[in-house]
Amino acid sequence: MPTWLKDAVFYEIYPQSFYDTNGDGIGDLEGIIQKLDYIKELGCNALWINPMYDSPFMDAGYDVRDYKKVAARYGINEDAYRLFDEAHKRGIKVLLDLVPGHTSDEHAWFKASKEPEENEYSSRYVWTNGAFVGVKDHPYMAGMSDRNGAYMLNFFASQPALNYGWLERTESWMSAVDSPEAIATKEAMKDIMRFWLDHGADGFRVDMADSLVKNDDNKKSATAKIWRDVRNMLDQEYPEAALVSEWSNPEQAINGGGFHMDFYLDHWHNGYNTLLRDYETDGEDNSFFLKSGKGDICRFLNDYMPKYKATKKNGYISMFTCNHDTPRPANTLTPEELKIAYAFILTMPGVPFIYYGDEIGMRYMKDIRSKEGGFHRTGSRTPMQWDNSANKGFSTAEAQKLYLAVDSSEDAPNVADQMNDENSLYSTTKSLVALRHMHADLQADADFNVIYAEQEKMPFVYKRGKLILAINPSGLEETISLDEFQGYQPIYTIGKVSLEDTNLTIGSSAFAVFQIK
Ligand code: GLC
Ligand code: CA
C-alpha cells in the first residue's frame, strides 16, 4: 500500500476545461502546469486527470485512439512528462485515467481487428462468428466492415469492448478468460501502465474497472482476478503507484481486485447519494446536507458501514464532491450547505476527491447543449472560473471559440474573489484540507466510530481516532448531551458551537472538531 495515500487529498482536473494557455479555447497540459501552485495552495497533494490521450472525442476522450500519445489539443507527450516533474517538485502526485474496457473504433487495434483477414488483433475485441449473429443481452454493431462478425460495445457506439474473455461461455465464439487472446489484452493494458509509470505518472483512476470479463459471476471474480494480477505487477515493479477504481463496490474492487481505493459513486439511493443529491425530478429532496433538515444520516450509514468495515484493512473508500459524470453539488446545495458537506467529506476515512471548481461552488449548467457525448453531464464540465476578466480568466479566445461557454451569470463564483474572502467556500475548503493534513486522526486510515446517529434526528456525532466531530446541517440549533464529550474542547468550528461539560449546543449549518484538553 503506497503510504502517501494516508494523507492524500485529490483534485480532479477535466483538462479541456481547466486552463487554456495558447488561446485556442481548450484547456491544455501547460495550463495544468501553470495552475499547480494554485492546487498546492488549496492543499491538494494529488491529481486525477481525465483522459488526455489522442482521441476522436466521441466520449470526451474516454474513446482512446492511442493510449501512449497525448491529444494534440492538450499538447505533446513531453508536456505530460514535464507536468509529472513539476507536480512532483511541489509534492503533488499525478494519476492518469486508464480506460481498459474499450477503445475508440479508430484505434489501430480495432482497425486491424475489423479486417476480414485473420491477424494479431482479430481477437483483441469481442466478436461473434457472423455478421448476423448478435451478442445476447448486450449492445453490438454489425455490418460495419467486411469482417463476417458482429462486435460488442462497452459504452457508446464508438467504443468496442476489448476482449478479456467470458467467464460463463455459452457460444463457441466466446473466448475463455485464460485464452491467449484474453491474456494478450491484459498484458497490453499492463504495457500501457508501465509506459506512463516509467515516464513519471503515479498511478491510475480506472474507468469502468468492473467491465472487463463478460458473463462474470455476482462477485465479478474473474474481473477481480485480472486486477489482482495488475496489483501484483505494481507491488513488484511500482510499489508507490496507486489505483482507484470506478466500481463502487469496495468488497469486490478492494478485497477482490486489490484496488487501493474504490469510488463511492453517485448511484440512485445508495449511501453517498442520500448525502448530497437525493432528489427526484418531481419529488422531495431529502439530502442530508440540505438545511431543511429532512435528511437522515442513518440512510448513509446503513449502506456505508458494512462496506467500510469489510474493506478498511485492505484499502480506502473514496468520496468525492462530484465528478465529471455527476451534477455539481452546487446544483442543489447553497455555499453555506456545501461548507458542511465538504467538512464531512474531508474528515471521513478513505481518500477524498475534490472536483475542479467545487471549491468555489461552480454551478451545474442545466440544459446546455451536449458536447462530445456529455449529454446531461456536460453541465458539470464547463470552464474553470479563475477571475472576473473575459471568459472568467479561462482563456483569451473569443467566447464563441471556447470548449464550452463559461457561466456568464453576474454572480458566477470565481477563484480570485473567493481567495480574498475568508468566509468564502474556497477559504473554508482550504482550511478543512489543512486541518486534515494537520491531524493524522482525520486521515485515510484512522479509526471511524459513530457516537450519535438517530433516524430523522440531528446532529451527527462521530469519532476519528481520538478526535470527536459533530455536524448539524439543519436550519435549527440542536443541543445534545453525551458522556463522550467529557474533557474535550473545540479546535475547529464552522458556525456556532459551544461545549459546556458534556452538553453540546450546535447552531444551524455548523460543524466542529473536538480534542482532549
Ligand atoms: C466512465 C466515465 C465516463 C465515460 C464512461 C465510458 O463512466 O467516467 O465519463 O463516458 O466511463 O468510458
Ligand atoms: Ca489550449
TrEMBL record:
Record Pfam families: Alpha-amylase (PF00128)
Query: Is Ribosomal protein among this UniProt entry's keywords?
Result: no
State the source organism's domain of life.
Bacteria
The answer, when asked if Hydrolase is one of the entry's keywords, is yes
Query: What Enzyme Commission number(s) apply to this enzyme?
Result: 3.2.1.10
Q: Which SUPFAM superfamilies match?
A: (Trans)glycosidases (SSF51445)
Q: Name one GO molecular function term.
A: oligo-1,6-glucosidase activity
Question: GO terms for biological process?
Answer: oligosaccharide catabolic process
Q: Note the InterPro entries from the entry.
A: GH, GH13_cat_dom, O16G_dom_2
The residue ranges of the Glycosyl hydrolase family 13 catalytic domain are 12-436
* Keywords recorded for this protein, A-Z: Glycosidase, Hydrolase
The cross-references to Gene3D superfamilies, in alphabetical order and at most eight, read: Glycosidases, Oligo-1,6-glucosidase, Domain 2
**What PANTHER family does the record tag this protein with?**
ALPHA-AMYLASE FAMILY MEMBER, NEUTRAL AND BASIC AMINO ACID TRANSPORT PROTEIN RBAT
Similarity section: Belongs to the glycosyl hydrolase 13 family.
* Name assigned to this protein: Oligo-1,6-glucosidase 1
Q: Which gene encodes it?
A: malL
